[in-house]
Amino acid sequence: MPAVEPKSSGRATPALAEAEAVLARVWGYSAFRSHQAEIVTSVIAGRDVLALMPTGGGKSLCYQIPALVRAGCAIVVSPLIALMQDQVGALREVGVRAAFLNSTLDWRQAADVERDLVEDRLDLLYVAPERLLTDRMLATLDSAHLALFAIDEAHCVSQWGHDFRPEYRQLAQLGERFPSVPRIALTATADAATREEIVAELRLRDPARFVASFDRPNIRYMISDGGSARERLWRFLEGEHPSDAGIVYCLSRKKVEEVAAWLTSKGRTALAYHAGLPADTRRAVQERFLREDGIVIVATIAFGMGIDKPDVRFVAHLSLPKSVEAYYQETGRAGRDGEPADAWMAYGLEDVITLNQFIAQSEASEERKRVERQKLDALIGICEMTECRRRALLAYFSERLSEPCGNCDNCLEPPETTDGTEAARKALSAVYRTGQRYGAGYVIDVLRGKDDERIARNSHDRLSVYGIGKDLSDGEWRDVFRQLVARGYLVVDITQWNTLQLTESAVPLLRGEEAFRVRRRVKLPKAEKGRRSGRGAGKGARPGILIAETDQPFWAALRALRAELAAEGNVPPYVVCHDRTLADVVHLKPQTLEHLKLVNGLGEAKIAKYGRQLLAVVARFTG
């Protein structure tokens, strides 16, 4: 492994200049992005920091560079084994002395890592919170020279969050035990309340706070009703992502396996992933996804924080997530490389009912259940809205977008709405007159005048609402009921077999004092028709990688070399280099090792390791 130049204390030289030198020398980047420079210099100066940056925004560099500038070893608290291994593999590729301590190591290997830590032979050490807080590990840290603590995925500290891990709350003792060691807490998913909770629970000392934009302009958001969801998904994949890597999220393990089998029968390489599978199977699935092109993972949320693959071109949801935070984090796994990507979702009333069941049946306190319902309601509101979705998504995180984004389905093709007041009043009346004791399916059958033994037995075929809704189809009525629930006119009582009940908000609508507009059902949105030419065309969207037709063989040869190098090094291809780096090679056509320093993403270690092979490919196509 190529060596890194000796570190300085970071106190004798200007911090920013030294940080920029490390950025260029080790990672091959010419400048910091967003708040990176301010975050890095704050940590180098020894200050506690709270940093909130979007997925793919370069959070890791915010502690990795200070780790190379400050004396000692940085301890990185990381929640998942896969994430640790990916990070350490990538760091070793650029010549950084990095290691991890987790259950994949035997006692001899773990002892070697601990010895390296104490003897100052490491720049970064990744540890899970559970292991870090053991008496043995804390005693080892007492004997080590520490540069900083980095607490990744810090939102896990929040008891109201979607990834709550109680061990994270115990990390506050790090500040008490090691008061002179700065701490940086990092996350991509935290609203204002959660950010305050992170600071309080970790007991950060007067932290410098940095909140980068939550906006991921390269991601196009698309949400549609759940009718024919699988067929919609297939049309979307066939039209927009016929060979791209992506993730499809489902709510249940059974649905995961069914969808994976269905996609496989359609000719896609689709692999199932959920917590019920053996650990070896899950590990093998994740390895294939990271190392191969075009793999589709169908998963529950068990496939989560450890995903560091930059070229995921789509994230699709066949079930509604639990909150805006969960939706933002899961969709944020698409397009980490900054290239155009899609966040696609289909959902229906049954998703709302199922998630409300989960909340009601959980052992959480009533206060937590109330918060979870509010979070779910906020996401449903974004799903049902007719205006720019990105503006609403950012507003949830207290960020204002001055104008519509131009890169969500509502902006690209504004939805049609129609006056649904009469239909809404009929629906509410039918719920009321059937005694508020039935689910949507039964009430719809009454409205449409279905000849049904159960309806006759209940004498509901004699009600004034019986048959008054024959002008709408089952699907159209389900749209009406879904939107009535979403807007708070109806609630689903999951303790009474998912019965629909009126809320106080329904009274003005029933009296004719309010109007109710509904989204018109669209059989196949244009966003699902394969309009690939429109991808990334939004106001804030970045263009994709463009390679001239004449350079396609050159591009293919570079990608083939990268795959070969990755196989030899037993690392994913993106660890060798990103597509953007290969594109720079195509455009710049460097002729010497010195010229390779102009390529974005090639630091000294990678040039020393791969430079001559890259130049050999360049020579084949430019000689």
Summarize the structure.
The chain has 623 residues and is of the alpha/beta class. The longest helix has 19 residues, at 366-384. The two termini are 32 Å apart.
Keywords:
seven-stranded parallel β-sheet; alpha/beta; 623 residues; six-stranded parallel β-sheet; 26 helices
Question: Can you put this structure into words, describing what you see?
Answer:
43% of the residues lie in helices and 12% in strands. It contains 26 helices and 17 strands. The protein has a 7-stranded parallel β-sheet with strand order 3-4-2-5-6-1-7, with helices on both faces. Strand 10, helix 12 (279-291) and strand 11 (296-299) form a beta-alpha-beta unit.
What distance separates the N and C termini?
Answer: 32 Å
Percentage of residues in DSSP E strands: 5-15%
Give the strand order, joined by hyphens, for the main sheet: 3-4-2-5-6-1-7
Overall geometry: globular
Total strands: 17
Q: Calculate Rg over CA atoms.
A: 27 Å
What structural class should be given to the helix and strand makeup?
A: alpha/beta
Average pLDDT score: 87
The parts where pLDDT drops under 50 for at least 5 residues are: 1-12, 524-542
What can be said about the biggest beta sheet? Answer: 7 strands, parallel
The number of helical segments is: 26
Query: What share of the residues lie within helices?
Result: 40-55%
